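DATA SHEET
Item: assembly model
Revision: 1
Owner: S.N.
Input lines:
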Amino acid sequence: MMRFTFEQSGKIVFGRGTLPEVGRYAASLGSRALLVTGRSFAASSGLLQRLVDSLREANLDVVVFPEVEPNPSLRTVERGARLAASKGVDVVVGFGGGSPLDAAKAIAAVLALGGAPSDHLYPKAVEKALPVVALPTTTGTGSEVTQYSVLVDPDARKKVVMQGPALVPRVAILDADVTDYMPGRLVASTGFDALSHALEAFISRRASPLSNLFALEAARIILSNLPSAVKGSREARELMLYASMLAGVAINQAGSTLAHGLGYYLTVHHDLHHGVANALLLPHVLAFYAERVGKVDELAASLNFRSWEELVERVCKLADEVGIPDSAASVGVTESELDRMAEEAMFYRRNIENGPVIPSLDEIKQIYAECYEGRRALLRRLGRA
Ligand SMILES: [Fe+2]
């Protein structure tokens, strides 16, 4: 028997050359725009100026907030919101990778709700936000279609999240021309973020037949196009931009699970790119679930693999092919840290409890220990090395 709800608001505009349409869409939502972006890429590529021009041509007043760091902190959101409030901003434009988009969404929420960013964190639901127009410049985050804004609490050294339907951008503009500017390394890491979204959404306990359509299509596209996208194929990058949006819709419905929950530690404490953290954990997390429940078998079969082991092997080979490090050890994690990692990971219950089985503290330690050993060790254990 099927039973599910599926809510996906927001307009999706997909196509090369659509970036200058931002002015028209933003002007339909407000008259004073805050343009939220990262510190360097947008300006150096010349794209930021094109965006500002498009907004001004549509008669919007524009305030630029080009200060979003990777893994934006609550303080950055607070600074952006204060600037926007002082200028009477009524629409927010997010431009960049996941970090600027998530910061733009959080700023929009704080502007509508008042108070400090920390007043509006999960488990509270964000029910009000200024309208956001999102233009992703990387092919992984999916933030342009999700109700999540993932931030860092710098005092607690933890990832925190704002969540609620009001955070879904009103317009997402996906212009594959901007992916020309991505270095291959960034295509690899953000691509693994999107792959994690797709696979985790499928095995999530909130997955539905409809969210699975998005998850499986995203996974198929990523598994067959990521290497050529990394090498620079424009067609493959366009497909990755499409797939990362599909995977975003999938997690917007079903949520992410263990790879995200366990990966946050690596980002916060080892400054590892979010996508690389997911990539390091994904094969181990898939194996953990596969050895306990049938969901990964079902996932593998839906993607035309003969067994879950074959799917795990494919994910490992893909990571090798696009230059993802093999193990947590190779990115600086020490063996003496593993216990603390597991204890800190318990903070991310939202993700951990969203999987088909909930691991114990000892099982989380075991997954981290396997991730520390690396993919090659996992494949040997599975008899596939
Ligand atoms: Fe992610």
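QC remark: The chain has a mean pLDDT of 97.
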